[in-house]
Amino acid sequence: MSLSNLRDLYQQVILERYKTPKHRGVTDPVHRRQRGHNPSCGDTIELTLRLNEAGDRIEEVKFDGEGCAISMASVDLMAEALRGKSTDEALEMVQRFQTMMKGEAEFPKEQRKLNVMQGVAQFPVRIKCANLCWHTLKAAIESANPESDSFVSNEAES
């Protein structure tokens, strides 16, 4: 597949996820809640997580919010990829995604849908849009307050 065709495919997937997200809503019950905001462009999301009984595995992720196609596609793809992952695996995925945005890595075959976001790395100003949900996820997992009402921001991100 040519680079042009691959880029077109990536754009199609991003637009499809933006227009018809599969994971919009609120989990039932809510075990973790975290809001995220990208002051640069105004993207805002609210993540909710449903965890297993032990609290160490993600059963479901849902989101609500408003933002550009890249931020909304990224959160929808992330929500899908996290189902069944341990919280440690999820934190590793956060790191891998951020490394991918620097052009230094990609996801393995079983999580290859997330590689659709690789094209964003070509547009440095848009990396914050793609990373917003991952910053928010990290804060949700690491939070001592499972129902945080505060916003995390990715403004300090380079």
Automatic annotation (TrEMBL):
Signal peptide: none
Domain NIF system FeS cluster assembly NifU N-terminal, chain residue ranges per copy: 10-128
Protein family (similarity comment): Belongs to the NifU family.
InterPro entries assigned: NIF_FeS_clus_asmbl_NifU_N
GO terms of biological process kind: iron-sulfur cluster assembly
Superkingdom to which the source organism belongs: Bacteria
Name assigned to this protein: Modular FeS cluster scaffolding protein NifU
GO MF annotations, alphabetized: iron ion binding; iron-sulfur cluster binding
